[in-house]
């Protein structure tokens, strides 16, 4: 699988620390892209376990109960994701603070999701770091923790401390991590699965998404898989020169428009091969190839096997 960037493939282990009142939306936006990355890559890239301060079920804001895999004291890993969401003020006692401080010996990176930044700051784990929080709490957070450099960003990565402003931003953050760890080709596939064209996430000191021109180009590509547009036409429609679009897309995605467009079309072909009984000829047409042999050549170059070989393997 072409990555578009060089990246390690080592398993990363996440602990997701839940508190009563956590947001189902935030949890799903965090874990589901990781699950999708594992599925689409055919590898175990990410592993996660749900944690709590003690091994009892944790209840979300909407009443969903989650049975934790372990207590925080018994867990370790690469990254601890702290997710209190609603009612976070009630969870900021000495027990939480002591548990988070002790966890610094067992987790390399700490992530405050939604209002998790507040609990990390109370434990002193954000002192001297740039951080954000759910924007409804931003003013109070700034006043309460002057030793933290507060930023109005969707997410902030500052060394081994990561903070995030809410559920939708959690999706953005995880998409960024997938692209950073395993390449933008995989991030693009995950974005396709969740039906978002805003699939490229960049980070430079703070956080942000790919340029609007790249996102418009991706949307045009997604809308025109069966009858592909030319790259000059895509550039014209997004209001950029072909050279400028090429440069911007390489910066955001690690690949130029032609390569990205081909990947989108071949991802569609791979999905149809694995999930339907359509003939290879019909799939070729739906993916914008004039004949099956052209699809087969491109497919083999991209994925290392032919469409027929993939179909045989899937059955």
TrEMBL record:
Keywords: DNA-binding, Transcription, Transcription regulation. This is HTH-type transcriptional regulator CdhR. SMART domains: HTH_ARAC. PROSITE patterns: HTH_ARAC_FAMILY_1 (PS00041), HTH_ARAC_FAMILY_2 (PS01124). Pfam families: DJ-1_PfpI, HTH_18. The gene is cdhR_4. Residues 215-313 form the HTH araC/xylS-type domain. It comes from the Bacteria. The keyword Ion transport does not apply. One of its GO terms (molecular function) is sequence-specific DNA binding.
């Amino acid at each position: 699988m072409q990555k578009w960037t060089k990246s390690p493939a080592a398993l990363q282990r996440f602990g997701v620390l839940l508190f009563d009142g956590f947001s189902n939306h935030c949890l799903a936006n965090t874990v589901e892209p990781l699950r999708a990355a594992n599925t689409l890559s055919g590898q175990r890239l990410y592993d996660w376990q749900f944690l709590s301060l003690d091994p009892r079920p944790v209840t979300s804001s909407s009443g969903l109960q989650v049975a934790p895999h372990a207590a925080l004291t018994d867990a370790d890993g690469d990254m601890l994701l702290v997710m209190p969401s609603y009612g976070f003020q009630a969870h900021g006692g000495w027990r939480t603070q002591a548990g988070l401080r002790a966890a610094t010996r067992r987790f390399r990176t700490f992530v405050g999701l939604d209002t998790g930044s507040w609990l990390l700051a109370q434990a002193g784990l954000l002192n001297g770091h740039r951080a954000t929080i759910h924007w409804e709490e931003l003013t109070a957070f700034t006043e309460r923790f002057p030793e933290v450099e507060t930023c109005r960003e969707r997410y902030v990565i500052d060394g081994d401390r990561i903070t995030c402003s809410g559920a939708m931003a959690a999706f953005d953050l995880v998409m960024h991590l997938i692209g950073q760890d395993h390449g933008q080709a995989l991030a693009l596939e995950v974005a396709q699965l969740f039906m978002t064209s805003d699939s490229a996430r960049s980070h430079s000191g703070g956080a942000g998404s790919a340029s609007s021109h790249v996102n418009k180009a991706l949307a045009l590509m997604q809308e025109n898989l069966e009858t592909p547009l030319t790259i000059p036409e895509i550039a014209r429609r997004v209001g950029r020169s072909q050279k400028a679009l090429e440069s911007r897309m390489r910066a955001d995605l690690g690949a130029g428009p032609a390569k990205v467009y081909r990947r989108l079309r071949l991802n569609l072909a791979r999905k149809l091969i694995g999930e339907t009984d359509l003939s290879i000829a019909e799939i070729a047409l739906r993916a914008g190839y004039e004949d099956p042999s052209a699809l087969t050549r491109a497919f083999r170059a991209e994925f290392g096997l032919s469409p027929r070989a993939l179909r045989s393997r899937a059955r």
